[in-house]
Amino acid sequence: MGARYRISLTRRKWLAGVGGGFAGVALTQGFGQLVPFVAPPEEIVVGESTWFATTCRECPAGCGMIVRNREGRAVKCEGNPLHPLNQGRLCALGQASLQGLYDPDRVQAPQRREANGKLTEVGWPVALREVGALLAAKPRLAIITDLHTGSIANLLTRWASAVGTTPRILTYEPLNYESIRAANGAVFGRQVVPALRLDRCDFVLSLGADFRESWSPSHVETAIQFAAIREPRNGKMAGFVYVGPRVSTTAAAADERILVPPGGEAVFGQALLAELGVAGTITPQAAAQQIGVSADLVAHVARALKAAKAPVVLGGSALPTGPNGAQTALVAARLNQVLRSPGLDFERPLPVSTTATTSDLRAFLDALRSREADLLLVMGANPAFSVPPELDFAGAIKGVKTVVSLSSYADETAAMAHWLLPASHPLESWGDYESQPGVLGIQQPTMGLVYNTYQLGDILYGLAAAAGVDPVAAFGAPSFHAFLRKRWAGILGSASNEVWMQAVRNGGNWPGLPAGAPPPSSTTGALASTTSTGTPPPRPMPESTAELPAAPVASAAPSQPEGLPAAPKGGELALWLYPHPHLHDGRGANKMWLQELPETITQVTWTSWVEMHPETARELGIRSGDTVRVTGAKGSMESPVLVWTGVAPNTVTIPVGQGHTAYGRYAKGRGGNAYVLLGAFGSPPAAGPALRVTTGSTSMLLARRQIHDQQHDRELARSVPIERAADIGQREEIAWPLPQGYQRARGDVYAPHSHRGHRWAMAVDMHKCDGCGACVVACYAENNVGVVGAEQVARGRIMSWLRIDRYFDGDPATGLVVFQPMLCQHCDAAPCEPVCPVFAAVHAEDGLNAQIYNRCVGTRYCNNNCPWKVRRFNWFDYRWPAPLNWQLNPDVTVRGRGVMEKCTFCVQRLRRGVYRARIEGRPLRESDVVPACVQTCAAGALVFGDLMDPNSRIYRLFEQEPRAYQMLPELNTKPAIVYLKRVTQTV
Fold first, then answer.
1. Which CATH number fits domain 719-984: 3.30.70.20, 3.20.110.10, 3.40.50.300, 3.50.50.60?
2. Nearest alpha carbon to residue 607 among 687, 711, 708, 696
């Protein structure tokens, strides 16, 4: 790029620039390489954190994020408490973004593919000069990019016109919601994905839509809204019915769960239309016979919809060719139209509404195949992994002379490229993103460059300059940062540096942001907006006063369902594909935290899996744990099989996102790629594609953290009907972890502990917990928890301090499902403490059950005596390949082999909060002490505080909450954690 477009900036100078308290400095080309401290600059206080507000780009949601920087390293990501969508919360994918930043398998410098097929590293001047020379010839240009909005999208359009001839730009996302967009276009005349407003609704019907997982384009926002309407108040809460082929994390929360074969959810919805008086739909009796449910059940759900004042129906597939995607989405849209649902905000279309459909993708690849492009630029997307085989992406790009990848990662698409020009990670880059209309987030560098990469905007500028294009004339600004500043001057209505820096500190600009709002400077501020119940209240959003369009569509409800899968013949089954709850469309597969995080329902880690009903498995001679080959019309994949009753008979369900052949050591070879089973059509198919399941040719490990499903009458995870949820008479006695909890009548023979100043405690609301796992990943990130891999997980040696146990009450298909976050209970009469021969397990003065690592000799007596089995023993020295070790929290000791470890309630955060209050000479506030798990929980399921403060929320929950109980009370260990029972209701 040369001195004109890149400057050499030392880490010392960069730290000096940010030390003044502002969030970023306008520089021509970003930041220099990351180097260790020798002599810290005087502007930086060693040991103190600097926080940077930015925008998460791990998925299309675009949540607000703040990143903690210590001594020049980004070490922790949190949600931005000022952002209206996620309100200080963050999902597992966002928490793990650091592992993408420090990925040891990232493309570390520009590379050129030689004649022998091997890649050779070259410098940026050479790469820009040679690729720029190709662009100088004004080639026919084709571009495939992942979803961008704002400045990058604007620049890309101008750039393509400036350097190419007849440019084609395809915005590609594997989860493009095209069936939902098409249905909304047909019924409402708006071919978009509207923002969900569950907070306006009192009844939710899901037709196979897992909105608490990756189905929702903004699932943190959705989780916050859903938790709010499911809060029991005055004996009432919103109703929820789920109809679909498998028990998902979303389905687990339903009051009524109805398992149907793939396509059956569309038939069920059409029967509901008939019950609502819509002519031309299938009768409930015919629908019931076809999908194996009773007509009375259809009528029952229809009555619930009629009785609701504000119902919403969610349906359709996020994948482009989901099972019965078109029909289900169309039926859901028609139901929302008939019911006049307030749950869809068409005035706030989401960015995924602009992504390419399957028809667009087919036309684009046909053009490449016909040699209508000379140069293909791929930005961020990985179509070689996710495009269905029928479209033959690999064959299409053979018609292109030069393929240039701007990806940060050596993924499947980069493996086909002639040039690799690695873009910097979003946490190293300037940019912006419009999450929803009016909600604009700023993306800024949170640390120096880890590798020899350039920011995406700078690469485009550098290529344009190398091609002989004048940046000022073509783009209106001499550099990308200047381009960004100029655009934001128009957004903010001022070119003032002070106004710009305030927007950078806030993380962007949106309605309801108070003028001069203080920047989000630490994690402790993110809990201040929660209610007394722990549920974050919905923030003011751009409101729509317009009602749903009422234009009737004759074809919105076909008279008969189309293409339902028939009973299996000779091993033929129906397929249900869904996005992986943690890996999204597969982009999270290179992050080991997400690979080790168990999928909450199946508890599977580190691989893909095939779910099958026991009756179907019996017919095929398959047992749980076997490796099977699943063959579709155009491709096949192998994965281990999980046999259980939580899936409809004659159905195979598989998550997409695993099965990479490249993309790094943590993604490569993990299960099978289910995208190869997708068909490719101009519009989504009416039913799931048929397939065959046979014995696999290899053996794959099915590593599950939890293999037991039932409580065996031990009442570990309890529930209560909503009619009794507020009944103080059913409240169970709490053995307080304080002196008043010690009673000789209870069998106490030892004196109580004396706590000085504080006694930390937690409440876990199992009714709110949605099993998303964000708390688990946040704990990994905050406390340097080791990742052990699939083999050790299968041996029961997973190291996570916090786990989410999942229990079924009866048959998983229809019974109650409860998620129970389980961590150290910090008992006041802890069984682990007296058995340690070296006093490594001790009781701290603030009530924590502390573990002194330097004393521990690894007898594991404490683990044997722990009723909760939450202590973790280091069987090995777990390593973080460089530069992953840069993500380690400097406030937390890295444990070694032979040492026992466990949850500490994030003691480093507690101490920091207490010391801050003491230094400032004020009482401790609840927002000063927030463990990482509590900080990130979108549903507000975790409440933390000081039991010695009678005004605290945690004190009130211990003293007054009717649903509160302690685990295994017969042991009289006086846990400092109470659980709130799951609330059930009949709709």
1. 3.30.70.20
2. 696
38-86 tens-digit pLDDT: 666 655 677 888 999 999 999 999 999 999 999 889 999 999 999 999 9
Q: Which residues pair with 77 in a beta bridge?
A: 67
Residues in CB range of 542: below 8 A, 6 or more apart: 347, 348, 436, 437, 438, 439, 511
Residues 351-409: pLDDT tens digits? 999 999 999 999 999 999 999 999 999 999 999 999 999 899 999 999 899 999 999 99
Residue type at 190? R
What's the token pair of residue 643?
């046999």
Residue 112 identity (one-letter amino acid): R
Question: Which tokens in the block code for residue 444?
Answer: 């800024």
The dihedral region occupied by 371, where left means phi > 0, alpha psi between -120 and 50, and beta the remainder, is: left
- pLDDT, tens only, 950-973: 999 999 999 999 999 999 999 999
3-state secondary structure of 746: helix
Query: DSSP assignment, residue 414?
Result: G
Helix (H) or strand (E) holding 55: strand 50-55
Write out the E strands in 860-985: 872-873, 900-901, 942-946, 964-965, 977-980, 982-984
Evaluate if pTM is beyond 0.70: yes
Give the Cα separation of 451 and 427 in Å (integer). Answer: 13
- Rounded CA separation 211/88 (Å): 20
Cα 600 from Cα 939, distance rounded (Å): 16
Query: How high is the pLDDT of residue 633?
Result: 80
Angle between helices 480-492 and 456-466 (to 10 degrees): 120
DSSP assigned state of 136: H
Closest CA to 455 of 487, 439, 476, 432: 432
Which parts of the chain register pLDDT below 70? 1-44, 321-324, 514-572, 680-690
Distances (CA, A) of 941 to 841, 914, 917, 951: 28, 24, 26, 20
What residues contact 859, with CB distance under 8 A and at least 6 apart?
836, 837, 838
